[in-house]
Design a protein that fits this description.
Strand content: under 5%
Oligomer: single chain
Number of strands: 0
Largest sheet: none
Distance between the termini: 48 Å
Structural class: mainly alpha
Radius of gyration: 23 Å
Number of helices: 16
Order of helices and strands: HHHHHHHHHHHHHHHH
Length: 297
């Protein structure tokens, strides 16, 4: 290789490296978890599109980031339909006296979103101060469905309760069809967390209903409950018309759980299942407690 060619190649390599660095910097500062605690807190609270990507880094910072999140959110007065979900998770998984104190304060507030954010975190830490029953605030919110954010936060909280007293409320919601996709999705995940076999018949009926659309979540909930029937029921819902919808992610979940890949070809899936159904077993990793599994898509 001549010197001229060598320098040309090195130049191209240098330009490419600079380009990657610029892109990485742009991505990290605009969408990523932040270079500092301050940036991480700012992204978590204020970036309503990509703020969730800062969640794990915020959890890793522990107590030291909590005052920054508190400051960015104006003492949690600026909780909304996006950041409340992420902040609840950060506070819940930061299992310290400081986070618990913040969560108890949030749960004592009159603002519903703040109160529900506190409830999720307290339930994650198993220190929720109330019992779950038909008169519980969480159950009332799901039953009355006053607001999309409130209902979905309440569904998440009921899942973290792991209390079978939440089952009538959750199963009742799944029997309301059609309903908002994410209401049903969060209800399925809540049932997977609770882990009661009582949910299996309703979840099976969900997968078979043309008026039910949260297919990947219902499928994975059934798998987590050890129900092999989820596979043929899920296969029956595979059609080309769900490809561009959230429902279409059931194909990815089928692939992950079975290790097979037939895309949206329902006939191919059925042929495989006919030959495998006698011996096939649910992989052990999908029978672990819900929060030890990778979430659906």
């Amino acid at each position: 290789m001549s010197a001229r060619v060598k320098w040309f190649v090195l130049g191209i390599f240098f330009i490419a490296l600079c380009g990657v660095a610029i892109i990485w910097h742009f991505w990290n500062t605009t969408f990523g978890p932040g270079r500092t605690k301050e940036e991480t807190a700012q992204i978590l609270v204020n970036d309503l599109k990509f703020g969730g990507r800062a969640k794990q880094k915020a959890i890793n910072y522990g107590d030291s980031i909590l005052p920054l999140i508190q400051n960015e959110s104006a003492n949690f007065k600026n909780l909304n339909g996006r950041n409340s979900f992420w902040i609840a998770d950060v506070l819940g998984k930061t299992r310290t006296d400081k986070s618990r104190s913040i969560l108890l304060d949030l749960y004592s507030r009159t603002n519903r979103i703040a109160k529900l954010t506190g409830a999720i975190g307290l339930l994650q830490q198993s220190v929720f101060p109330e019992k779950i029953n038909s008169d519980s605030l969480l159950v009332q919110i799901v039953r009355d469905d006053p607001d999309q954010t409130e209902t979905q936060l309440a569904l998440i909280a009921l899942g973290y309760s792991k209390d079978t007293n939440a089952l009538p409320c959750l199963l009742g919601l799944l029997n309301k069809r059609p309903s908002g996709y994410w209401h049903h999705a969060y209800a399925c995940e809540a049932l997977a967390r609770i882990g009661s076999q009582e949910a299996i018949p309703v979840l099976e009926d969900c997968l078979g209903s043309e008026n039910f659309y949260a297919l990947p979540e219902a499928f994975r909930a059934l798998i987590a409950l050890g129900d092999k029937q989820a596979v043929p029921l899920g296969i029956n819902r595979v059609t080309p018309d769900i490809k561009s919808k959230n429902s279409g992610y059931i194909v990815k979940e089928l692939k992950k759980v079975t290790g097979k890949s037939f895309g949206y070809n329902r006939d191919a899936w059925r042929t495989w299942w006919d030959s495998a159904k006698v011996t096939w077993e649910i992989p052990k990793e999908y029978l672990k407690p819900w929060d030890e599994q990778r979430p659906p898509y």
